[in-house]
Specification:
single chain; alpha+beta; 7 helices; about 30% strand; hydrolase; hydrolase activity, acting on carbon-nitrogen (but not peptide) bonds, in linear amides
């Protein structure tokens, strides 16, 4: 399993979102409070963020635990952003992909993370994988379930689907092919955040007055304004609005 978070709001140092809160993503790497599967998220981490005037995000990813990376501590102290997506990873299966398997994945303006696991991987997604062009399969960032789920989402985005629809349709396709999968997906382009709650926890903190929205696997503090997203839901958010839409179970 994993923990992930997306932030839209006023420009702040990365550490204000990822390190300083009492139960920030940094602490969730060894002491998550609401994680249902797994206990320690030490198999890699990553953060992607947007610089003012540049729609293409930067990324910093590593294969080891976030607490052991002194370079990240410096980065988090000095880099400021008004939009980010970050994750800490608990690998479902061991593999050799290391840093390449750490979210966020990226393409163009998009950053993506998957909190969960595909049941029966890799065989269960064979019929979905063949829908992708060969060059997209061969250029997957990693050989894991999250990378393939990202490729399926990205194909829909490139075909013109709106972000929330791309996530929702991908979740329903994967859930139909691999029942029992956990598919909490998180996607941002620096202006909007879309996410799905499917098999694990998802929360959001909306602060329209400050034009700030946070979407995360679990709250990073004890602010009573945090709200839990019901399971089987797609979330679409900006800095000032959050919309929740139920997802139906896939047809048998």
């Amino acid at each position: 399993m994993c923990r992930h978070i997306a932030y839209l709001g006023p420009g702040v140092p990365l550490r204000d979102v990822l390190v300083e809160p009492a139960h920030a993503l940094y602490r969730q790497s060894w002491e998550p409070r609401r994680q249902r599967h797994g206990t320690v998220n030490a198999d890699g981490f990553g953060v992607g963020w947007y610089a003012e005037g540049d729609p293409v995000p930067a990324r910093y990813r590593r294969a080891g635990p976030i607490w052991a990376d002194l370079s990240f501590a410096d980065l988090a102290r000095v880099v400021r952003t008004g939009a980010l997506l970050a994750a800490v990873r608990d690998a479902t299966l061991s593999g050799a992909d290391a840093e390449a398997a750490a979210a966020p994945y990226a393409a163009g303006p998009w950053l993506f993370s998957h909190n969960g696991a595909v049941r029966g991987w890799p065989g269960s997604l064979g019929r979905l994988a063949v829908r992708l062009p060969a060059d997209e399969l061969l250029s997957l960032e990693a050989r894991n379930d999250s990378a393939l789920v990202w490729a399926l989402v990205l194909r829909r985005l490139r075909d013109g689907d709106e972000a929330g629809q791309a996530l929702a349709d991908t979740v329903l396709d994967v859930a139909a092919a691999a029942p029992g999968s956990r598919l909490n997906l998180l996607l941002t382009d620096g202006e909007t955040v879309c996410a799905t709650a499917w098999g694990d926890t998802l929360w959001y903190l909306a602060d329209p007055g400050r034009q700030r929205t946070v979407v995360a696997s679990e709250p990073y503090d004890d602010d009573p304004a945090w709200r839990e997203v019901p399971d089987r839901t797609v979330l679409a958010a900006t800095r000032t609005d959050v919309l929740l839409t139920p997802l139906k179970e896939p047809s048998a």
